[in-house]
Amino acid sequence: MSNTAGLAIPCKAAVSWEAGKPLVIQQVEVAPPQAMEVRVKIKYTSLCHTDLYFWEAKGQTPIFPRIFGHEAAGIVESVGKGVSDLQVGDHVLPVFTGECGDCAHCRSEESNMCDLLRINTDRGVMLSDGKSRFSINGNPINHFLGTSTFSEYTVVHSGCLAKVDPLAPLDKICILSCGISTGLGATLNVAKPKKGSSVAIFGLGAVGLAAAEGARIAGASRVIGIDLNRNRFEEAKKFGVTEFVNPKEHDIPVQQVIAEMTNGGVDRSVECTGNINAMVSAFECVHDGWGVAVLVGVPNKDAVFMTKPINLLNERTLRGTFFGNYKPRTDLPSVVNMYMNKKLELDKFITHRLSFSEINKAFEYMVKGEGLRCIISMED
Ligand code: NAD
Ligand code: ZN
């Protein structure tokens, strides 16, 4: 038992009071975990686009004040009633989606879309009692994605915590709790390229480069990176991307450019842009007969996917994936092991490091599209 178990913990958190305004680092109280919940001491957190979208709250429901953050790593401080598989001191990755273990999805080998703990961007409270565990002078502060990792302590449903190897460095593996696992899993679990095959990656941000890392691990021989931003190409070389296409530099559709480069189309494609045109191109650029396209990017809510049905009849497959098809609790420990066994490279994704007091700078980097992942240390 830790000596803070059962008590509220006063600690520092970065609170977002208003859309697009700098976060304020201030003292909050973090209530003890209730049934099936766990209180976690966050050691490192990083910033992902989803934090930015909801902080800007442009196309999203504005919910403020709120504590953002969902890509992180930490250590269990105390557990609530009924939690039997996690103990004080366990190293954990909080995940924005969960695994209750009981629902039809959790029981299916194929799905990771848990009914109980599936992502809910509009919920600012805990599931069990509809209340927040964060407060300032008794006034509640909203949670975000059930994780709220921009706080020294947070409370998370135990089904949203993956217990990982305590020897794994938390300042590296924290990036596996969202974007990197998403791209990696999209390739390894869904596109499944064969050794020696060709893979097209649309969008060379962190998610797309993680998909490229998956292609490298799978032994693909050609990895074609497609992006509208030429600056992305240099960085992408470190991720095994062998050829580049900028759709803006061609006057024919990019799917046609790729078909010409590959004698009819790539074996696999993974779309990581969220742009509807890129989604259609990603599908239409795969080879007939066997090509598989996987959509990862989150589109505008009104976007409609249009293609001629003949493209499907000609034996192309279109798939989509959520969190790389990984079940967070069951599968993340083995993704961490891939890093520990040096099969998966993570260091190349980490382009910036900041202390918690500088968290607003991490937002600036992301707004400017600078770098890939910025690790924020909660300790200094
Ligand atoms: P990012 O903004 O860093 O990268 C996207 C890249 O796509 C940019 O380099 C941009 O220039 C490029 N791009 C945009 N439109 C393009 C087009 N038409 N053609 C070619 N390139 C284009 O974003 P990211 O953090 O890497 O995330 C990528 C996507 O993955 C986002 O849509 C994000 O919401 C989504 N995502 C999905 C899941 C999931 O579970 N499905 C999880 C996390 C993130
Ligand atoms: Zn479930």
From TrEMBL:
Gene3D superfamilies: Medium-chain alcohol dehydrogenases, catalytic domain (3.90.180.10), NAD(P)-binding Rossmann-like Domain (3.40.50.720). Its EC number is 1.1.1.1. InterPro entries: ADH-like_C (IPR013149), ADH-like_N (IPR013154), ADH_Zn_CS (IPR002328), GroES-like_sf (IPR011032), NAD(P)-bd_dom_sf (IPR036291). Residues 36-164 form the Alcohol dehydrogenase-like N-terminal domain. Its cofactor is Zn(2+). Keywords: Cytoplasm, Metal-binding, NAD, Oxidoreductase, Zinc. It is found in: Cytoplasm. Signal peptide: none annotated. GO terms for molecular function: alcohol dehydrogenase (NAD+) activity; metal ion binding. Residues 206-336 form the Alcohol dehydrogenase-like C-terminal domain. PROSITE patterns: ADH_ZINC (PS00059). One of its GO terms (cellular component) is cytoplasm. Belongs to the zinc-containing alcohol dehydrogenase family. This is alcohol dehydrogenase.
